[in-house]
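Researcher: Structure prediction, please.
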Amino acid sequence: MSDATTLICPQWIATVEPAGPGSGPSGLLTDHAVAIDSAGRIADVLPTADARARWPQAHCEERPGHLLTPGFVNLHTHAAMSLLRGFADDLGLHDWLNERIWPAENRSMSDAFVHDGALLACHEMLLGGVTTINDMYFFPEATARAAMTLGMRASVGIMMIDFPSVYGSGPDDYLAKGVRLRDSLRDEPLISFTVSPHAPYTVSDESFVKALALAEELQLPIHLHVHETGFEVDDAVRQHNERPIARLARLGLLGPQLIAVHSVHLNAEEIELFARHKVSVAHCPHSNLKLGSGLAPISEMLDSGINLGIGTDGSASNNQLNLLQEARTAALLAKGKSHNAAAFNAHQALHAMTMGGAIALGKEQEIGSIKTGKQADLVLIDMNDPALKPVYDPISQLIYAAGKSNISDVWIAGQHVVHRQQLVGSAGAAAFSSVVSRIPVWQNEISDAGH
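Model: Predicted structure follows.
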C-alpha cells in the first residue's frame, strides 16, 4: 500500500461508488478519511482512526462538519466566452449567434483573447469545485495553457466548423492544427482532447466523416452540440428531410464516444437510439433556459439508461460557471417537467456532475469517484453554515441548499489548488490578477466590435 502524504478527514465522504459495507447512497461514508499518496492518487479510503494510526506522519486536514466529494466535471463549456458575459443577453440562439456572438468573435478573437477569457473562467470554476472542464473553442492551445497555469484538468476540443475564422481557414486546417496541438501536449498529465465538430448545422457530411475518422484513429471522444433548439431540428427537416440525429446515425457518429451537448428536442425514438448506442448527454439547463431553447427530457433519458453529465455552457449564454447551481436546476426541472418529485434525485445529480462526466470523457478509471488508485480530484464542502443546518442527508443538502460559497477546498491530482476559498500558488494568482487588469481593454474592444 502506498505511503500517504496527506489525510483528509471530513465528517462525510460521498465516494460516488457502488454501495458497499458501511456505506449509504452515493457510497456515503461517515468518519472516514481519504489518504493521498505522493503521486497524487488516492492511497486508501478507510475509517479515520485507522488512517491516523497507519500514517501518523502524514499532513492531516481535519474538517469536522465538511462533506468530501469527487471533483466536479463540467462536461460542456466555452471557457473563453467569459469575456462575452452579458454581451448578448435576452436573445434566442439564432439571433444570439448570428447578430452578436459571431460578429464579435470575428473582430476580437485571438490567442490572447482566448487565454485571458479561459483563465478568468478557470479561476471561477475552480472556486466552484470544478476540477475538469470539457472545452470547445477557437485557439484551444490558449485554453490548455490557461488550465495548466491553474493546475486544472482540461479536455480540450480539436474544434471544427465549416466556415473560416481568424483561427483557421476551414475544416482541414482546424483538424490539422488540433492534431499538432494534441501531439505537442500528449505528455501533459492534466490535458486531454476530444474531437469537437461544432454542430450539424455548421458541419457538412464530409467534415463529419473526417472528424469521425480522426476520433477513431486517436481513440478520442466526439463532442458536439445537437438538437439544441426546435428551429435547428425543423430547419434540418426542411432542408434535408432528415432530423440531425438521424443524420449522425447515418454517418456512424452514434456510439459511446459521442458527447451529445444539449439534446433538448429528442423524441422517444431518439432517446432509445441514444440509449442503445450508449451516447452520453451533456445537459446545460441554464443555457437552455436563458436562450429559450426548451426543457430537455432528462427523466426519460435517465429511465432509458443514458449516461448524463452536467455542463455550464459558456458565460455568454449562462452568465455563471457554477456547476453546483446547474445540478440543482437540472434536478428541479426534471421533477417539474415529469411531474415526478423523485425524478433526478440528489444522488443522481451528484453522479451526473462527477462520474457521469468522467464516463462521457472516457476517464472513469481515473476520476469521477473516490476510490483507491484513482486521481485525487476532490472537493470539500463546508456544511457548518447555519443555512445548511440541520443535515439529515448531506447529499440532498449539497444539491438543494449549498452554494458556491460553501465550497472550501479543492484538490486536483493530489495538489491543493484551493484552500479555504483561496487560490493556492503564486503563479496562478499572478496570472489571474493580470487578466483582471486587462478586462476593461477587452470590454472596450468587444463593445466596439458589437457596434
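Model: The radius of gyration is 21 Å.
Researcher: Thanks, that helps.
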